Amino acid sequence: xxxxxxxxxxxxxxxxxxxxxxxxxxxxxxxxxxxxxxxxxxxxxxxxxxxxxxxxxxxxxxxxxxxxxxxxxxxxxxxxxxxxxxxxxxxxxxxxxxxxxxxxxxxxxxxxxxxxxxxxxxxxxxxxxxxxxxxxxxxxxxxxxxxxxxxxxxxxxxxxxxxxxxxxxxxxxxxxxxxxxxxxxxxxxxxxxxxxxxxxxxxxxxxxxxxxxxxxxxxxxxxxxxxxxxxxxxxxxxxxxxxxxxxxxxxxxxxxxxxxxxxxxxxxxxxxxxxxxxxxxxxxxxxxxxxxxxxxxxxxxxxxxxxxxxxxxxxxxxxxxxxxxxxxxxxxxxxxxxxxxxxxxxxxxxxxxxxxxxxxxxxxxxxxxxxxxxxxxxxxxxxxxxxxxxxxxxxxxxxxxxxxxxxxxxxxxxxxxxxxxxxxxxxxxxxxxxxxxxxxxxxxxxxxxxxxxxxxxxxxxxxxxxxxxxxxxxxxxxxxxxxxxxxxxxxxxxxxxxxxxxxxxxxxxxxxxxxxxxxxxxxxxxxxxxxxxxxxxxxxxxxxxxxxxxxxxxxxxxxxxxxxxxxxxxxxxxxxxxxxxxxxxxxxxxxxxxxxxxxxxxxxxxxxxxxx
Length: 612
What we know:
This protein is 55% helix and 7% strand. The strands form 2 sheets. It has a 6-stranded parallel β-sheet with strand order 7-6-5-8-9-10. The chain has 30 helices and 10 strands. By secondary structure, it is of the alpha/beta class. The chain has helices at 3-17, 25-37, 41-54, 59-71, 75-88, 92-104, 108-121, 126-138, 142-155, 160-172, 176-189, 194-206, 210-223, 228-240, 244-257, 262-274, 278-291, 296-308, 312-319, 361-367, 371-376, 390-393, 422-425, 445-455, 476-479, 487-490, 505-513, 527-534, 546-553, 594-611, and strands spanning 352-356, 380-384, 401-402, 415-418, 462-466, 495-498, 517-519, 539-543, 558-562, 583-587. The longest helix has 18 residues, at 594-611. The model is unreliable at 1-22 (pLDDT under 50). Helix 4 runs antiparallel to helix 5, helix 10 packs antiparallel against helix 11 (176-189) and helix 11 runs antiparallel to helix 12.
């Protein structure tokens, strides 16, 4: 309320107090309103009571009594007063206030009905649509909330409150590009708002735009230095940028502001693991488990360290924590089956078992090796891989039936097993990994001939290249390499063949310039075609992607380029893989630089070419 309005309200209330304004309920109401607006709540309540003594059904006064109760956090009383006002004279303002009171009392369904009626009466009010959306968010009706936010912003595209709340709903829905657009709008309308900047940092972080995220996190921290969440997010951005020592400092700041901050403890432990300080990481994870014994994310992180260090017995069991993580990419889309999950304990002789993909393409290729072992136990095996792998795996030994998808339903089966749970079910140790030189179906001769003809027959070593993975992968920054860094390798006297699908714009430009790379990727329509091409190559040089698993599973010589702290399956301190006998590993050193890795690859490749 501005100074002029306060003076007017004070004059009105003083007039009634002096008796010169009459004693009609409306005049008493106006006086009460003036007292409320001037912050004199007891006076406002007294005038309301005088008005109601004259007219117990005076709607405005009943509503004002409700507002006074709301401000006093007497929500049950507020609901009663406002409901009486609404019955006396249904009006939008009353419905909105009723919705607010119901919401504060935790009666979200009833609040929804009140706001819904309000927007029907005044459909051009963006604030009502926003308040309706907020109730829908609390009721976890995300799709309807989105429609309400969009309606609010359609009525007022620059409505900051709607855009702000909508942005954070989009962040929760993992619609990061859209969230960023709305947060940019919020920032334009209200610059230097710490929560907006930190939200934008979150969106940029999830879009793998870590430098920009770090910049916004720093601005947010300057505005709100005592905010532990911002300190934690700053550390997380530095962690992704490989600046681990700095990241730890920020996690420690967050913990100084909020001791027992589980998210910061977990992030610090992850960073310590990246630095190979595993004992310190385990100590922090134990601390988290004391605070939150059921924290599944912590169990998952512990399991990954155990597997990375070769402790398969504990690691496989720990990985099952993923079923308790709702947002885990391997479990969120896993079908719900009424049949029991096979854990390795049940006798499956004469039974039908459905083996279903639950994580990435590389995981499916790596663990499909267990299918013949299931058959050896007397089971009939049905395989449900990712659809893009169906052509490759449809002829897999040990599999009775391979399904492309669920569109035509499932045949009868007795048990199901997620494909990445098979190592646990078979109690796999480092010594008992089922290893064969090649376990995937051999590409047909006619497909191999087609690819051989495309490559030509000049007798030089044929080398396939993959330099990047999915840009949306959370570890993409550490595993993908710009094609321009391969220039030293390309000077070797060999035939280089691109196996790269969907190259990034910068890499596409390099690919056009390098006429010494054969690019037939347009013909790689599925994994069976890629397998046929790989079978025609003498060597595959790749970063850690599904093609690395494909080449290894086909028994082709494969060199994999790894970050210093790789995915768990590649273990530590070795240049071979117990999973794939024909794979050789080239690892970053403590410098976390791929230049030295590629120099080593160039040296080894030249040796190989000379030997050929």
